Amino acid sequence: MASIKKINTRKFKITVSNGYRPDGRKISRAKTIIVPDSVHSRSISQYVAHEAEEFERIIKSGYCEDSEMTFQEYASRWLERQTKYAPSTLGFYRRSLETVYPYIGNIKLNRLRPIALENLLIELRKRTFRGKTIQETTVQKYLTVVSAVLSDAKRNEILQKNPARMIDLPDTTQKTQAIPSDEEAAEFLNIIADIEDPYKTFYALAIYTGCRRGELCALKWSDFLVDGYEGILTVSRSRSMVPGKGITEGPTKNGKSRTIYMSEDMMSLVRSYCYQKRQEAMDGGFPPSDYLFTNEKGELMHPDTFTKYLRQLYDENGFSREYHLHTLRHYFVSTMLHNGVDKQTVAELAGHGDTSFLKRTYCHPQMQLKQRAANQFTQNVFFGGSCTNAATA
Asked: How many CA atoms are closer than 13 Å to the CA of 77, on its beta-carbon side?
């Protein structure tokens, strides 16, 4: 229970005890209040009692003790508790936080105000990358990570509000991701049909399943469940490059496994590749690898190898310089959505839990669809409806 000490007629000191420290010292917090002149003298005791009760509630719920930690201390502990994310995602969080620590790391959680975060953004906007000022979207990504930490503090009743959500941010320019047309996709499939494995199988799986690069690099033969000529693929892990740590293997980006149906044609391609790898191991005198994508010595291939080879393939065949390996994933999701597959199913196939993020990020209206929509509008409005009627009225 809070103790109240009267200093003078309208000034009081409230002290609350909240357990003991490991060394046996009592944990106490004190607060001095001044009763406003607007409070009648007969109501002073009631006003002080209410303030003492409210202060005790705040202390007991944890706002005070934990909020004495600096942002860097709490963020470091927050990172340690994040186990569901892929190593590459955690690496991004860690690098982002290390960037903001010099500006807000030493500020106590209970002293972190929106103005401090606005000053942080001002400093971040001065940063450069390869001689160019970083984009506003990149600046706001740093704030998103900071906001995630502060939201966790709010969820744990350490903070009452998340100051990162109180900032009025400028609009950012959304860059449109170019994806292949259906004709280009067909041409791409014809091209990879003639290249050597493991690249042929890797890129075929990329465009057919929409898997991320790291997820493909981590595939094992045991991830395939064969059912006659068809099969089921389970995607449960990822191998990615993490700055400072090299290539690490961990869960998928959202920490969840997912299953993908494999058609007869795709399973035939995987079987053919499997036979080739077994023969390769037999000829080389080494045991077959558990993983799909290995070199001629049975060693795991670096993820960047597939990115670089595809860049060369694009250039040799006249594809846009805007295309990259992730473009195949964009094409997979966009095609699914454009062909009427419901958003929830596509989100599960792509490994996304947020369907709004999925459609906002991956659904790219192709020119043929835009043309079809315009023709349909013209047909309905100008030749089958209102304009014709208006002209004859």
From this structure: 10
Question: What does the pLDDT profile of the chain (393 residues) look like in tens digits?
Answer: 788 999 999 999 999 887 776 677 777 888 899 999 999 999 999 999 999 988 887 776 655 456 678 999 999 999 998 887 777 788 889 999 999 999 999 999 888 999 999 999 999 999 998 888 898 989 999 999 999 999 998 888 788 889 999 999 888 766 667 888 889 999 999 999 999 999 999 999 999 999 999 999 999 999 999 888 889 999 999 998 777 777 888 888 888 899 999 999 999 999 999 999 999 999 999 999 999 999 999 999 999 999 999 999 999 999 999 999 999 999 998 888 888 888 888 888 888 766 666 656 665 555 555 556 556 555 655 555 444 444 444
Cα 92–Cα 93–Cα 95 angle in degrees, nearest 5: 65
Distance CA 359, CA 347 (A): 9
For residue 129, report the phi and psi dihedrals to the nearest 5 degrees. -140, 120
